[in-house]
Structure formats: structure tokens, C-alpha cells
Predict the structure.
Amino acid sequence: MPPAHRPVAPAEQEIATTASRRSGPRKWLKAVRWLIGAGLHPKANQTTQAIADDLAARMDYDTGHVLYRMHETAARVDIDVSNVKRHVKYLRELGALAWVQHGTRTNSRRAQGLDGWAGTATIYAAVIPAVFDHAMGHRIIGTGYEARIVVDLRDRPNPVDNRSEGPVDNSAKGSCAPPSLTVVKEESQVQIVGGFTTTATRQRKTSPAPNTRKSSSKRRATILGAAVTAAGMQLGDKLARAIGRRVSWARRASHDQLRWVCADMGEQQWTEDQAVRFAVEAGFKHRAGFAWEPARPHRLIAAELRALQEQQQADRQMQDDLAQAVSWEESTAGRAAAARASLAALFGAPAEPEPERTAEDRKRAELYGWDQWEEVAAHYADEPDDALDLYGERLCTYAVGKAARREWQEAWA
């Protein structure tokens, strides 16, 4: 007889004290459906199931751990936050969730040596209580969170009788071999490993196939188009390990994926601190690790590398434009204004009113304003309309953003 289920006490809702065993999201979701359907908790219902579905969709397949993210769960399930708390409590009392980490307001970024503030997240582990295993007839080895199921293969069903389909043309008696194996890797990885077979009936070639691979002198290029070098890849490997250690949301990517993304950093001789800071700022920009967990972190970092390259190219173009620009004093309008001012001073004539702003004035102010963004930000703070007319919305936005970022960094320094 299965043991009578009782609500799990709060002291037994930690992974160190739980009587339930660990699980992955797929089997855990099956167990939760059974627990709710069996009526083992008087208040668990379809809303509890909907929250369990949301948690399972975000769980780590290896550990069964999931970030709570209470407010986002409430928005996705379309219920109040208080209801999310209540139904997650029901899952804990069913023995289907256990605490891995309690959320606090402790600054997790400071522990990583980073600026800014971010509270410690709440993390749950998917667990399956003993009442479900007893009902399913599972045999369990061990106790608590590290318990495991033992699968008995002795009572598995007999093979299907297909003798009416005709004999199989085997090459010889007893020549059966293990099934073919295929190693499959993700397409986005640099190297794709093909399959290999151990089948005894494999066709043997009498002569080696001619090497039809065409040799090419073209070298492989990185994401940003730089030539791959051994030194750059070696440094990229080191930078990838640093990012994997210190940036939590980047750990969903494999080491090969991070290493290939970091190849450009290696070619540019970045340091570990530069690479980690770049990844942290890229995540902060997209709220990775806070509002969402990127499924392919290496693609986020690659996109930011491309954006950085485009910004650097735009900056270089701006510098070229600045170098070729004519100063106000040397321009035709500037010389005419200086001549009028000289005549006015000589004859005591009243100074002419300031001429209306022209397109040339705006173009020159925009060219020089990118290097003098502090002046632009101060101008915008005093006279926003005039600053927008002179510098344009794009430059004003850039200057105000730079000023705000500096104030934020000084506040957290």
C-alpha cells in the first residue's frame, strides 16, 4: 500500500532535507499532473498546473533547477502575484518543489566583483515525492534528493512476432552487430561531427576513394571577419573560460560556442577583465539574467560585438569628417561675420543682430558635438529646444545618455 500523503512541512522543503527525489522537467511535469489529478492537495487545481507548466518550460534539463521569477510568471499565466505565491506553496506542500536558494536583497553583483545592484534570485528544484513512485510501482535506491529509480528490464514485453513478413537476408549466422551510432552536434557550433557505423554488412571498398577535397588558400574568418590565428584562438579559449566562470547567464552556451565568439576578442588582445565586463554590459543592456535567460548566450555576445564594430566604424567616419571639416573662422560665413564685427567696432555702429541659424551651423555643431558631449548635455539641460535645433535629436540623446551613465557609475563607485 502506498503511504498516506501529508502536506510537506516547511522544514522539509529544502533540497537538503526533502524526502522527494530530484527530477528533470519532463518526468516532473508528468508527476505533477498525477499529484494534482489524484487530489492529494485539496487546494491544488488547474492554476497550479498552469504554473507548473510555466516552470517546466524554463527548467534546466540536467539539474531540474529553475528561477522563480514570480512577477514574470504572473504575467505569463495572467493571474495575480499573490496567486502565484499561493500555488507555488501548494507545489512545495505536495513535495514537488524544493528550495535551492531563497531570494534575498543581498547584492549578488557585488559578490562577483561587479558594479550595480541585483538581488539574489529564488531558485527551485524539481522533485518527485515517494507517493508517486509507490503508485507507479517504481523501485527506489537511496533516500531524499539524491534517490534514484531502478528500472527492471526482466519483465519487458517480448519482441513482436514478424515471421509472416518473410526472412531477413543476414550475411551469416551470428553476424549481428551493435546498432549504428551517430554523434550529432548543434548546427551553430564550429565543428559538426559525422556518424560512424559498426554494422558487419557495411560495404567494403576495394580501393581507396580519390581525395576530391579541393585545397584552398583562403583562411577561415571570425565572426567580425578577421583571419583566425592560433594565438587568437588560444587567447579566445582563455577569455571564454573567464566569461563562463563569472557570467552566470552565459553558462547555457557550450565552451566551444563561447570560444568561437571570443575569437575576435583574442585577435584584438583583450584581457579577461575586458571580456567579462563586455559580456556583463551586454547582458545588462538586454536585461539578461534579470528579466530573461537567453537560450543562446553566445549569439547575444556576438550581436553586441557586431554592434560595437559598427559603432567604431561610425566613430572613425566621424573623426574623418571632423578632420576634413572647415573651422568656423575659416569658412566664408565666419570671415564675413568677422569683417562686419570689425567695421562695427571701427565706426561705432551698433552690433548687428545674431544671424539666423543655418543648415551649415547645425552640421558643424553636430560634427564637433560628438567629442564635446558634456557641453551638449549641459546645453540640453539649460535649453532643450535650442539644443535639439542645433545638435539634433540623435546627438542630444547620446550626450544625455553618456551623462546619465557617468552619474550612475559615480554613484556606485
In short: Residues 297-324 form the longest helix (28 residues). Strands lie at 21-22, 65-67, 97-101, 123-128, 139-141, 148-150.
